[in-house]
Amino acid sequence: MKATNGMDHGQCLSDETLTEYLEGVLDPAITTACEVHMIGCDHCREELALYMRVMQLNITPAEDAHINRIADSWDRRKHVSSDTLPAAWGHKNFFLALMTVAVAAVFGVLLFWSSTHKPPEPQSPAEVVQLLLAQGRASELRLDQQPYTPTTRTRGREVSGVDYGLIASEMVYMGADSYAMGRLYLLQKDFARATSELEKAEKQSGASAGVHNDLGVAYLERGGEINIRKAAEEFRYALQINPDFAPAVYNLAIVSERTDALSQAEAQWKRYLELDSTSGWAGEARSRLEKVSR
Amino acid sequence: MSESTRFPWYGTDDDLSSADLLRECGRKLTDRDLWQKFQQRFQKLIFMYLARALRFRGPYEAKDLVNDLTQDVYMRLLQNDGRMLRSFKGATEFSVLAFLARVSVSVATDYHRAQMTGKRQAAQVVSLEEARESGVTLAGESAELNVAAILSWIDVERLVDSDADRKHATRNVLIFKLHHIDGLTSDEIARFPGFDLTRSGIETILQRLKARLQKRIGKI
After folding, report:
1. pLDDT at A255
2. Is residue B10 part of a domain?
3. φ/ψ (deg, to 5) at B56
4. Contact at 8 Å (CB) between A95 and B30?
5. Which of A189, B146, B169, B196 would be a feasible disulfide site paired with A157, CB 3.0-4.6 Å?
């Protein structure tokens, strides 16, 4: 966080410290230090003011009505989800459902894998990630060796009810490297951890185009101008290593779209279709090319 | 902040305190009855925190958005085997409210940041006249003394140093800024135990510091 008025007022305050200040449970010396900081730091004072507004106990009739409408909408979803989306949050028994679906999803995928592939179950952390990649995708971006599946729109971290925490601990036990862990965290949408692991993987000598590509995805998912620039750099690194590396071309085209560089996006989508004209990814590329060409 | 009954739907009619309920939910992630209690007690509170945080971060309309982000709040509470809930150390009702507010604000902030990054929308520029016409109170705007503008260039440290109430000088100046720059009323400030002041106590501080500013700067 940056200071906004040029005064030197030290490190910014965490959300926890701000709310503890409001509660009055900080040590007196720390309380005074916080006050000195917030007098000088507009950002932290604005955050404190935000918490003070959010936590006001008084509720207006209009606000009460709004909250009740939200609650009604939640309840309606709950009823719809009980028929159609068993793992949807908001289900009356949603935790029970979550666990059931999580177990069913993991075992279902393993059963499917075992019936169609040899060896019958994943033998390495990389194969575990590959298995998860085949389940679906929640992002429009493309990871290395990601089989095509249509995008699943969700704001949640866990797309399929898979217990990523359990899988992560199992992967660590299996001796997963930073690349595999980074990819797993990407699937979990824990982009901070994903970035950290993939940066470690990138620093290792001989990092592949796939490592650079996936690190680029992590940066792009984190958002912000600096991260978008970093993402573009990583995709270009990947293409320096392998000029025909299709996922990096695909992702670079998305970067161009997001930065409104539409002519570049158009060229990159065309380039992508030269590399891949038949897969599901190509179908999406074609439709995006049409949009940016209009 | 102990007057939680002001929320018509925030109930604590149970032996289990809110703090213990949070921790129990963290320990028993699949306990249906416990989580029903959680929903009954906190669900609307989470809706409200999210709705308010979204509104203060920027314009929003869709009620479905709050529903979606509520799911994200649950996700965060549950991830890593409910670590956030299990590691909750608070004991008071306020600490529970603050914990849920932190998670909700964080989810709303992440959503807002992602929106701004994704859309890269140009900032909406509104003239001061338009803002006034639309009924928006400009921060710190006051007919007789534009305190916010003055505070932006005076040496605030000197204001702190000159406060006769030495023990609470920094708190008083912070309150002064929260009122005149961030637009919080004395009533809104007094509701937080951290300031340890009544509404009238806050108004006294505001008047005293404002008078000192006027004296220092002269009538504007």
Report:
1. 94
2. yes
3. -75, -25
4. yes
5. A189
What is d(CA B177, CA B170) in angstroms, rounded to the nearest whole number?
Answer: 11
Asked if B32's CB is within 8 angstroms of A96's CB, the reply is yes
**Rounded distance, CA B105 to CA A48, Å?**
12
Share of residues in chain A with pLDDT > 90 (%): 40
B72-88: average pLDDT: 87
Of A46, A71, A93, the CB nearest to B44: A71
**CATH number, domain at B57?**
1.10.1740
| Percent of chain B's residues with pLDDT above 70 | 68
> Is B71 in contact with A156 (Cβ distance < 8 A)?
yes
Residue B28 predicted with pLDDT over 60: yes
Instruction: Check B193 against A23: CB less than 8 A apart.
Output: yes
Mean pLDDT to the nearest integer, A72-94: 55
Domains within chain A, CATH numbers bracketed: 15-54 (no CATH), 124-293 (1.25.40.10)
B126-145 pLDDT, tens digit per residue, is: 444 554 454 444 444 444 44
Cβ contacts of B96 on chain A, cutoff 8 Å: none
Give the CA distances from residue A234 to residues A20, A195, A285, B9, in Å, rounded to whole numbers and listed in that order: 40, 12, 20, 50
Domain that holds residue B48: 4-119
The answer to whether B212 faces chain A, any CB pair under 8 Å, is: no
3-state secondary structure of A137: strand
ipTM surpassing 0.85: no
- A106-121: pLDDT as tens digits: 655 655 555 555 444 6
What distance separates the 2 farthest-apart alpha carbons in chain A? 67
Q: How much is the average pLDDT of B81-109? A: 91
Q: Domain check: are B176 and B81 in the same one?
A: no
User: What's the predicted TM-score (pTM) here?
Assistant: 0.53
Which among B27, B36, B47 is the top mutation candidate for probing chain A, defined by the most A β-carbons within 10 Å of its own β-carbon? B47
d(CA A231, CA A237): 10
Residue B106, both tokens: 């964080």
Tokens of A248: 């990096």
Torsion sign, CA atoms A56, A10, B90, B81: positive
C-alpha torsion A270→A272→A276→A279, nearest 10: -100
**Is B84 part of any domain?**
yes
Nearest to B51 by CA among B40, B62, B38, B37: B62
Q: Are B111 and B66 in contact (CB under 8 A)?
A: no
Tokens of B62: 């869709």
| Count of positions (residues) in chain A | 294
What's the CA gap between A107 and A104, in Å, rounded?
Answer: 5
Q: Which two three-digit tokens encode residue A197?
A: 């692991």
